[in-house]
Amino acid sequence: MMIRFTIDNIPVEAKKGETILEVARRYGIYIPTMCYISKTTPCASCRLCSVEVKDVDGFVLSCNTPPTEGIEVTTESARLHEERVNIMKLYDVNHPLECGVCDKSGECDLQNKTLEFDVDRQDFSAKDQFRPVKHWNLIDYDPALCILCEKCVHVCNEVIGDDAIEIMMGGYKSTIVPKNSETLDCTFCGECIAVCPVGALVSSGFKYRANAWELSRIPATCVHCSAACPLEYEVRHTGLNGDKAIFRVKNNFEYATLCGAGRFGYDFEVRESNGEDALTKAVDALTKADAIRFSSLITNEEALILQRLKEKTGVRLINEDARLFKVFEEAFSSASGKRFYTAELEDVKNSDAIIVLGTQIATDNPGVRYAMTVASKQNGAKISYFHPIEDDLLQNVVTQFVKMEAGTEEGVVALLAKELLAKTNAPEDIQSFFADLDEGYLEAESNVGEEEFKLMQRQFRRAKKKTLIAGADLFAHPRAKNIATMLGLIEKYSEYKVLLVPKEINTLGVSLICDLDEESKNDSFIVGYNARGDFTISSLHADADLFVPALNQQEGTFTSIDKRVVPTNVALEYEGVCLNDIVKAFGISKEYTVDFTDELVQRDESFEALSFDTLENFLSEVGEDVRGYKLKNRDVSVNFTLEDIEDLPEFNGTVVYHADPVLQFNAYTARTTELPKENFLRGSAQFATAAKIKDGDKVVVDLGDIRIERLFKIEEKLKGTVAINPTFDIELSPNRYRFEKSKIERVQS
Amino acid sequence: MSNTEMFKDRNISEDYFLLDIEDYPTTPWEKFKRVVKRSFKGELFVGLWVVLREMIKFDIHTIQYPEEKLPIGPRYRAVHEMKRLWESGTERCIGCGLCEKICISNCIRMETRYDENQRKEVGEYSINLGRCIFCGYCAEVCPELAITHGGEYENASEQREHFILYEDMLTPIDDVLNKKQREFQGFGAITPHEDERLKKTPLAY
Ligand code: SF4
Ligand code: SF4
Ligand code: SF4
Ligand code: SF4
Ligand code: SF4
Ligand code: FES
Hints:
The complex is a heterodimer of chains A (about 750) and B (about 200). Chain A is of the alpha/beta class.
């Protein structure tokens, strides 16, 4: 049902739930705003968006008023103009005259609107206050510049989920303050900086270093996780004669969101140069290599080049991260009957019921976390989170935390599948498989039972759009295949759409493009590509034998969690050689790496034969993701067997879980200047007792085959006997199940 | 007050007069007449006589550059200067980057940072005088009257590129404390009666 009305005599139609402002914008009719941000609920604090409606007294706020049938809206009149000019004058009262130094100058809404409304005189006044600048770690807040639009508060609460800031009301003295804390203690996504229309919230690392108009914007894609968020690197020369550098990262904050690693972790480019004979040595190494071990921090094009190399020389390709994902996905799709899982981030945002399983999602993939926050805050979605470790970051959105035992994922998924497939049209044999489960045993071992599922179903009672999110804990699980099969059945027969969360930026891409081999003891000489080998070709390792450009120095495409092929561009030029140059010796190189883009389709028919230059890299005016193209999903034959669930593994004693802290993902983030690089082993007081260690102790985490040295830190918010071990600073094979029994030894210092 | 009145006081001398210039000839006949007139009027000899006369008198007005130098006008646009505040001696430049942005020959480059006093500080600043066309835009746009032109016109250089740095342009601190800094009066300077035109912000409290 469309609602018909007119704006400035232009007949328009509104969808249900749309506001007058949204309709106006869709039709390209201009209404000035100061506090509006599309991705949150209206802040409704500026009143600049006032319009007149025929036969209605006074003004109507267009940003939070839905139209009714037949109304006549006027967006311009002498009265409205006067009102708006007065609002701008009030904003300008005592506003410091410091555009000359302000970081926002040149892109400041207050500057723009003050000029737009020709405010050249001031009729209002107020006693000025002393309001010193607050330094909040990566963020500086200048209350004197703040116009109290509330955008930052809305975005922090409704999109990020930290809910870390609020307005301290006090009339003219009002300011933004950290919530329940002296100083800001949050995940430092920096999204509040992005949305701030003035220079009140700025990045402390960028502050006063460059002006908006000097920076060139390079549209690119964040490389730190599989969400593949759109971002723009802003580049300028350094010093008087210096090289170019990335000064900051910005994003289309109106619709898209970045986490702090994307926003502050941008300077990971390779500056080292290669020795003269490094290239020759690399070619020799590749010639004699038995295998190439590589990580998924590469573009689709690089993956294709590696595959071509394999076809040419028979070298084996090892990438355990992508291989495990591929195995998982194949088992999943042979049960679901679809080539890919069907959910996307947009589906998560629109869900009203979400189940999360097998991932510490807030740090594994902040993009998914933000989508969950949007679902929770804007649709009131209920979220059930199954994991052995409760995540404090999700406390504002998760409505039911189900603490399961580590290692029992297979049992939990089986019980879940039984619950979700009941009363569906799943065939008899499947139903009976689940009916025959030894529920008592599974419940006892996993700690997840009827009660939890009952509560979950009660929460989801009214839900219409349901999503199940499954992550990396499952991919490296010894029983991954069976788990994947059961999830595939859930996708096929229940009303849940499933979202698998690939680990790295291009895990999905590599899994589609490369024929991957298993690690083997027989590989005596391994070349590493963005991974360690006997000869290391890398942009990640400071001691590489041959350096190649980092992902902010390359053009190419990634395949994101949304199964979308998204382009990225060169922010900083790289002088040395790249993979395409190295393989010239093998006769497979092309003029440019991106000349491989239209050949991806030769490896998997889900790709399209589109050349790199035809791929767009922006969000549309109404916020749709139109970057690159989406992989084609297709029907595949159903062919699976459900394996009986034998014993569930038990994890007793001091168990560690491999997961990165907020703002850290990989060797790139580990070498950026702004991001914190805390690599503590974090555990609860209970864990400390069990491991007989104290806060601040230097410990060795003994995993049997490797020993990791860490400082131990007690984290009050953690419970139980599982400690969290970061992996961003060590190269841990992705084929290790993320929970591991460990021996913790205290190191005498 | 008429519209142009505020431009009157621009310290130019009062005794300007207009030259009486004949109209240009248009027809070929008039042009021919002018050639004949100029050829036979003997003005050439008048000129030669003046030179000869002055030579004999030994009263030569030529400035013996570089031994002698004429004082330069206060509005002359030669090599830039960076001024300091009179009261404190603090550098006026706030690092806004407007001069760098407006420069049409793209010859200013600067770098700024956040300093320990929580202010924006200019780190490096250079002007390539080999490219500068001395248009004065930088001095005009500067909101702080920091960058101005100065009277230093001797900037011959062996190279096309010829850089001048912030430190070279900055008024020495002693000069400003001893009140020896000279304000630039040309392009970009405020008009002498600016104070009268200021309006205060209403402060009702
Ligand atoms: S916030 Fe905007 S108006 Fe205020 S000083 Fe900065 S640039 Fe100028
Ligand atoms: S940085 Fe992110 S989490 Fe922290 S206050 Fe700003 S919006 Fe909230
Ligand atoms: S800090 Fe910025 S975004 Fe937040 S209320 Fe102030 S002006 Fe608005
Ligand atoms: S005088 Fe003109 S050309 Fe020279 S530095 Fe200033 S703005 Fe640039
Ligand atoms: S315009 Fe003036 S204040 Fe601004 S950077 Fe240039 S010299 Fe400094
Ligand atoms: S945009 Fe509607 S009140 Fe600000």
